Amino acid sequence: MGLEIRNGRPYYYRKVRRDGKVTSEYAGSGIVAEYAALMDEADRPDKEQQRESSRQQREADRKADQELLSLEQSLNELFTAVALANGYHKVKRQWRKKRQR
């Protein structure tokens, strides 16, 4: 965020991310620019708190995903062991019962 002084007058530009690119958005000049800068400065802790809670949620989701993948792998191994013990085998990724001779 930037309060810029051009020709002795303050101009305020917000930096905004759109479609993965950072662009400058004109917010005002003179007293309006100073007021907008103060308002954005006051909102900054809230935005940082939102970012932190979002990061914590992503971390919790990542851990849950890892636990689910581990559980899925364990269940696949268990199923394979049970199927093999009961006379099944895989043919082209399908489980089939072995023929009795």
Automatic annotation (TrEMBL):
Annotated stretches, region: Disordered: 42-65
Name of the protein: Integrase
Species annotation: Nibrella saemangeumensis
